[in-house]
Design brief:
- The chain has 188 residues and is of the alpha/beta class.
- The chain is built from 9 helices and 6 strands, in the order ααββααβαβααββαα.
- Helices cover 49% and strands 13% of the residues.
- The chain has a 6-stranded mixed sheet with strand order 1-3-2-4-6-5, with helices on both faces.
- The longest helix has 22 residues.
- It is globular and about 40 Å long.
- It binds uracil.
């Protein structure tokens, strides 16, 4: 697949795993296809499945607020996507074979966008991008480098909705880290 549009079309007709049966539609991603900054989440929830867009439910509202307050931009200045392109039923975690079936799509998406900085939201995105089994609590708080991208792991916004102030504070610090990483990458 040579373009994001071609890749999105392939994803739309994907039946590689059981998640295809339960979806209303695929959620490929949105934003600037040439963005320097990409956010990667876990997988679509109910609202995302309904609208076909990533992070448009409660987690997304928090994410938009943090992006605006810490990075000073709106989501159209960056790109947002997920590890799985279909909604896992009842918002359960994606299963290992579902992640594996979907992973070539995210890998190609990141190759085509070629962002300088990737912010991974939660365990699934962080493990995929950093190719590790380590958890988010251990990995966040630092800037990692992988496949030519600077990678800033942070909590998933749903953890912030559950966990409250301390998680939000950590996410804010990570977004400041992402901004610094972007500035550093731009001056290289
Ligand atoms: N949670 C995610 O990980 N991704 C979305 O798009 C929405 C909620």
């Amino acid at each position: 697949m040579r373009t994001l549009d071609e890749l999105a079309a392939t994803v739309r007709s994907c039946t590689s795993c059981r998640l295809a049966q339960g979806r209303t539609q695929t959620v490929f991603g949105m934003g600037d296809p040439a963005a320097d900054l990409v956010f990667v989440g876990e997988g679509p929830g109910a609202e995302e499945d309904r609208q076909g867009l990533p992070f448009v439910g409660r987690s997304g509202q928090l994410l938009d607020r943090l992006i605006s307050e810490e990075l000073g931009v709106t989501r159209d200045a960056l790109y947002i996507c997920n590890v799985t392109k279909c909604r896992p039923p009842n918002n359960r975690d994606p299963l290992p074979d579902e992640v594996e079936a979907c992973s070539p799509y995210l890998a190609r998406q990141l190759e085509l966008i070629a962002p300088k900085v990737i912010v991974t939201l939660g365990n699934f995105a962080t493990r995929f991008v950093l190719r590790t089994a380590e958890g988010i609590t251990k990995l966040r708080g630092a800037v990692h480098e992988r496949d030519g991208h600077l990678v800033v792991p942070t909590f998933h916004p749903s953890a912030a909705l559950r966990g409250g102030g301390a998680v939000v504070t950590a996410m804010r610090a990570d977004l400041v880290r992402a901004k610094q990483a972007l500035d550093a990458a731009a001056s290289r």
